[in-house]
Amino acid sequence: MKKTSIAIALIFGTILIHSCQKDTTFLITETSVGPLTQDTKATDLETTFAKDSVVGDQVQIDLGASPKKFEVFEKGGKHLLTLTVNTDSVPTIENVRIMDSRYQSEKGIGLKSTFKDIQSKYDIKKIVTTLKSIVILPKGSNLYFTIDKEELPENLRFSTSNIEAVQIPDEAKIKYLMVGWE
Hints:
Layout: H1 2-20, E1 27-28, E2 32-33, E3 36-37, H2 45-48, E4 53-56, H3 58-62, E5 69-73, E6 79-85, E7 93-98, E8 104-105, H4 115-121, E9 124-129, E10 133-138, E11 143-148, H5 154-157, E12 176-180
Parallel strand pairs: 1-8
Antiparallel strand pairs: 2-3, 4-5, 5-6, 6-7, 7-12, 9-10, 10-11, 11-12
């Protein structure tokens, strides 16, 4: 009877431990995006995304060079990530563009988030104005968010002057979510 109780307790303990572990398949941290880490070598992408399809830049491959850009697709065809490789002697991932809304930062920000969500979770270091968008750079983070100028009031859409956080509507949607590793 005592051995049975111990066995049952061990089984329940194992189940409890597994249920408490966080699924990191679509988690964005400062050093990782899902199974990808900032130290992942370009040559290891097929192994890192073994359940998915990794496609290299075909033009580079045709020219006999190593691809500088890779796209990761789920087996069903959904585009997950676009990866840019650095030019170091041992190429690693330099930039990750998130394409799937299931990916979220540790603070819960993803492609379905708004500017208000970003402001509530991150301190903003800088806002960069480009011709068609604004790029939001949070303090102390490798993440950056792009919002299309179409989300802004009309008087700011065609301006190249600096845009302040107070000028961005709370409901402005994220167009691009990216992680930059140097």
